[in-house]
Specification:
The structure is a single chain. The protein is 40% helix and 17% strand. The protein has 2 domains: 55 residues, no CATH class; 145 residues, Nitrogenase molybdenum iron protein domain (Rossmann fold), CATH 3.40.50.1980. The protein is globular. The chain has 235 residues and is of the alpha/beta class. The chain contains 9 helices and 9 strands.
């Protein structure tokens, strides 16, 4: 629902929630390697008793997301003996980031920075900053990011519709999924409807893309942004 691509293979094993994995199901899956984030590091010994375990995190480290995602990608390539494939993929990604950046610049409203947002609830709208995955992808594509203020460990500031007020002169891009009930409430809000980007058709919608992922998510975001700009604003 939140990541969309790549598709889950038919033979995947469900090992439970990311914050509380089912250790018995994990053990039964007989993995060759276990990868955990820093959020689960306190249980490292339990994982390592099942299979060799490494700790990798793109976030919660106050560093720019895209360079960290690339390091993680290269670390996994080394751990799985796929360095050549990883280098080819990353080289191709550099070319595509540049191509998508050119396409966005050609299609986006001139003179407007991009405010990248996620609508989680009526009172929880995430506005991505420069250290986030969307923010660092825009930097890679040489595109202007609207929000330059303080962010949390995940790279975004959080608030209600009012958080978008200072960005009213920018171009708004929001990521899916957006629950229908939230879409209806926000779109009916008087505050929303007086914002300049709403009144002057500078609101763009992206299909589902995981804003807290790694290199595949980063490249998917770049491609979808180019396609969204070329398709035109939400009507």
């Amino acid at each position: 629902d939140w990541v969309a691509k790549p598709d889950l293979p038919e033979n995947f094993t469900d090992i439970g929630q990311r914050a509380a994995p089912n250790m018995e199901a994990l053990r039964a899956a007989k993995p060759d390697l276990i990868v955990i984030s820093k959020n689960l590091e306190m249980a490292y010994d339990s994982f390592n008793a099942i299979a060799p375990t490494i700790v990798l995190s793109v976030y919660n480290n106050n560093r720019d997301a895209l360079p960290e995602a690339q390091k993680l990608f290269e670390t996994l390539a080394k751990a799985t003996d796929r360095q050549a494939e990883a280098k080819a993929w990353l080289d191709d990604a550099d070319v595509k980031f540049a191509e998508y950046g050119d396409r966005v610049r050609a299609a986006m409203p001139p003179g407007r920075a991009l405010a990248i947002t996620q609508f989680v609830s009526e009172s929880h709208i995430g506005l991505y900053g420069k250290s986030s995955l969307p923010g660092t992808v825009l930097a890679q594509m040489d595109l202007p990011l609207a929000y330059q203020g303080p962010v949390n460990n995940w790279g975004f500031a959080k608030g209600g519709v009012e958080i978008l007020g200072p960005r009213a002169q920018d171009t708004l891009v929001y990521l899916n999924p957006v629950p229908d009930v939230i879409r209806e409430k926000v779109w009916a809000s008087p505050v929303w409807n007086i914002l300049d980007f709403v009144k002057n058709d500078r609101v763009y919608e992206l299909p589902v893309v995981w804003a807290y992922g790694g290199m595949p998510s980063a490249l998917r975001f770049a491609r979808l942004l180019a396609e969204s700009m070329e398709s035109g604003p939400v009507k």
